[in-house]
Amino acid sequence: MSENQNPQGPSRDVARHDGDGTVAQTDRFVDPGVPEHHPRLADVDPKAAKRNERIIALLFAISCLGTIGSVVAYFAVRPDGTTPGVRMSTVLLGVAIAVSLFGIGFAAVHWAKTLMSAKEYTEERHSSSSSEEVRGAVQQQFKDGLEDSGIARRPVLKGAVVSALALFPLTIAVPLVSSVGGDWNVGSFRHTIWKKGTRLAYDPSGRLIKASDLTVGSVAHVIPDVPAEERESHEWITEKSKAVVLLVRMDPRDHKRDHREGASYDGIVAYSKICTHVGCPVALYEQQTHHLLCPCHQSTFDVADGAKVVFGPAKRPLPQLPITVDDEGYLVAEDDFNEPIGPSYWERLK
Amino acid sequence: MKALAARRHHRLAPVVLLLLALLVTGGVYAALAPSPAQADTASTADIETGKKLFQANCATCHGPNAEGTTEAPSLVGVGAAAVDFQVSTGRMPMQMNGPQAEAKPRQMDEEQTAALAAYVASLGAGPAIPTDEQVDGSKGDPANGMALFRTNCAMCHNAVGAGGALSEGKFAPPLWDTSGRNVYQAMLTGPQSMPVFNDANITPDEKRDIIAFLDEQDQGSAGGLTLGSLGPVSEGLWAWIIGIGLIIGGAVWIGAKSS
Description:
The complex is a heterodimer of chains A (350) and B (259).
Chain A: E1 2-3, E2 13-16, E3 23-26, H1 41-44, H2 46-76, H3 83-114, E4 121-122, H4 132-149, H5 155-167, H6 170-181, E5 200-202, E6 219-224, H7 234-243, E7 245-249, E8 268-272, E9 284-286, E10 291-293, E11 300-302, E12 308-311, E13 323-325, E14 331-333
Antiparallel strand pairs in A: 1-4, 2-3, 5-6, 6-7, 7-8, 9-10, 10-11, 11-12, 13-14
Helix pairs in contact in A: 2-3
Chain B: H1 2-6, H2 13-32, H3 47-57, H4 59-62, H5 79-88, H6 110-123, H7 142-152, H8 154-157, E1 164-165, E2 171-172, H9 180-189, H10 204-216, H11 232-255
Antiparallel strand pairs in B: 1-2
Helix pairs in contact in B: 3-6, 5-6, 5-9, 7-10, 9-10
């Protein structure tokens, strides 16, 4: 390491002269080298140095106060279970820890900038490879080792070691791939638990829905009616996420057509809530325009017109659940969806 | 004045002006901002007074007998709850045509609102104004209210009721400053873009649970700054502008030479 000197000297560059095609070296620009060293105020003025020392000491002292403050805050303000109490505790702890850490950081940087050596150093680059002798010796060691193992003369051992090493990764790869892969039965995407006669129920209460309960302009978020204990099961989450339906009652005069012929009942239509784009729950229903918005990518479906796409990236209308009423006046499904709900997948049309 | 004029080229002058402008804007807003509506039940209101008020203020769009025109819907059968919601939040009488009628300082006082509600209720049966008991959030179950809010309301009004955008300039308003009575009436009557959640869908008790859940939101978040509870937009703005700005500032400070 050498101080304040440029190891390269003035830079030389290569330039081509036009016409005769000769190549000549020119000095395109001169390497300015390291800028001239200017002493800082603290280097020449002992008073300034002293002042900076005091500032640094003060910053460290602030950090100490922050640490003490965080310990005090931890014991003095315990989260009492109320929202303002928890907020007070976390905010005080956070502020105290921030003061403590920033105090140390600011003090260290300020120390380095004002009081530590400000001389400019030049560090020269060296070749990073080892010397020829060392490299030769290592190569020889490998060759000797290979010779010693006799692998060239014993092909059985060669095959055995390669097989053992090549097979070992299976012990990790097979369980990993098998458990990551999960359920490969794509047929389950084709159907939901809706079937002929399943009653419609309000989500999340599970109360059944009578057609007469729905006034014009109403929407209801609907799940299939299953026994209450089944709604506690783990499988229910999967089934519910496929079967959720949005039920809308509109003035029959506003209703232009069904996506699935004859699937509505007296202005009441039921559409899958799973977007055909990437499967977000489509549920922002504008009562006046009968438009149904997806919150993720703004796909917009016209519920009055077979839930066809009127805006956004979705490609297909929402699948419609055919509904009717049973003898007691409750809304029931006439069948499952007749197409897979949600976004596209490779096997969808098979 | 002269001393003031002499300093108009001072480098801090724009900052001072900006602060003054902000103060004036804030002051004017605070003076004009709508105050929460409180009205008594309309049981004793005079239907005749209501009819006169209606013909003076509403009939241009809704027709002389509230039968509706091409401009505005019929009010026969919308009930007192719809009138009380629209008029007490200042949405009606409507100021101008737009994507939706927005809440503004109410134009009718409580008596006039009650009279209008009584008149419209007399035209046809419709949902009545809820009682104070029905809209008292302290009697509801906020946990059940959260489950109901998540299923029925959160997609438009945001998970904690901060509001959100709809299509073509329409929006679902924030619910934090909305009175329990107006929240109840909105569910019952489905104003504008909002669908109806009648008592069969969300029972009166469940509506009160939702009000209780919204009341809980007044305490804010336990996690410190909510940035408006608007999710990635305000959080991203904060991280990119303030967070990265501070990091760049720190890097510049560390790299700068001391004088």
